[in-house]
Design goal:
By secondary structure, this protein is an alpha+beta fold. The protein has four helices and four strands. The protein has one domain. It has a two-stranded antiparallel sheet with strand order 1-2. A two-stranded antiparallel ribbon has the order 3-4.
Length: 127
């Protein structure tokens, strides 16, 4: 169960995160989470299979948002997708396209919200 406070994501139970998420706990205290990876996936290499898997991940995300009421979760995932693509210096593939295509139909403003958040954090990037 999670609750939303403004634009902040609060996670009460890690076991309720979708399967495409991963987390790391502090060594001496497993109740302390040090990191959540909102896009802990790897492509299988088949564009079509990856696309379908991306859509399944999106279905999990949609279910999670409906169960928790936290639409901002989608934005967290989208930001992590962008971070991972940039860190790995690769273009979006089937996983990402499948996820985004399905999410865009259910949460049409999510991608815009991520862009607005990015620009709000880095206003100098516009100059």
């Amino acid at each position: 169960m999670a609750t939303e406070t403004a634009d902040m994501l609060v996670i009460d139970r890690l076991h309720e995160l979708p399967t495409f998420c991963a987390f790391a706990c502090q060594d001496d205290n497993p109740s302390v989470v040090t990191w959540i990876d909102f896009w802990a996936v790897e492509p299988c290499g088949s564009g079509e299979a990856d696309y379908l898997q991306g859509q399944r991940y999106a279905d999990e995300a949609i279910w999670h948002v409906r169960a928790t009421g936290q639409r901002v979760f989608i934005e967290c995932v989208l930001v992590f997708i962008a971070i991972k693509l940039r860190e790995n210096d690769r273009r979006a593939g089937g996983l990402e396209y499948g996820f985004v295509d399905r999410i865009a139909r259910h949460f049409p403003g999510a991608i815009d919200n991520v862009l607005v958040r990015s620009l709000r954090c880095c206003p100098k990037a516009l100059n």
